[in-house]
């Protein structure tokens, strides 16, 4: 457990699924109530459900969020055009 934070740093965490207390194992926080396990990577517990890559968007998406996404994509496209042909920048 040398690669973990001090044990007191993990004391406030509860299981996101059942809200039960978590036990500290060598490389995971484990819930004895529902038997779920949450890995600890680089001292950070991963509480995401397996297979979850990102938070889903609201259904239907907020029009303001849609406009901001389009503006961000447009800005990135415009910025990439500025750097085309400049040596040292892919």
SSE blueprint and pairings:
Elements: E1 23-25, E2 28-30, E3 37-41, E4 44-45, H1 63-83
Antiparallel strand pairs: 1-2, 2-3, 3-4
- Which structural class matches the secondary elements? alpha+beta
Outline the low-pLDDT stretches. Answer: none
* CATH structural class of the domain at 7-45: Mainly Beta
Strand order of the largest sheet: 1-2-3-4
Rg over CA atoms, rounded to whole Å, is: 21 Å
3D architecture notes:
The protein is 23% helix and 14% strand. It has 90 residues and is α+β, with helices and mostly antiparallel strands. The protein has a domain of 39 residues: Ubiquitin Ligase Nedd4, Chain: W (Single Sheet). A four-stranded antiparallel beta sheet has the order 1-2-3-4, with no helix packed on it. The radius of gyration is 21 Å and the shape is elongated. The N and C termini lie far apart (42 Å).
Structure in a nutshell:
The chain is an alpha+beta fold.
What are its keywords?
single chain, 90 residues, alpha+beta, Ubiquitin Ligase Nedd4, Chain: W
């Amino acid at each position: 457990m040398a690669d973990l934070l001090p044990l007191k740093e993990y004391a406030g965490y509860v299981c996101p699924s059942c809200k039960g207390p978590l036990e500290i194992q060598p490389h995971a926080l484990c819930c004895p109530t529902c038997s779920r396990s949450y890995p600890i990577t680089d001292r950070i517990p991963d509480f995401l459900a397996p297979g979850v890559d990102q938070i889903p968007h609201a259904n239907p998406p907020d029009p303001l969020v849609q406009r901001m996404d389009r503006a961000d994509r447009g800005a990135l496209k415009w910025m990439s055009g500025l750097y085309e042909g400049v040596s040292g920048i892919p």
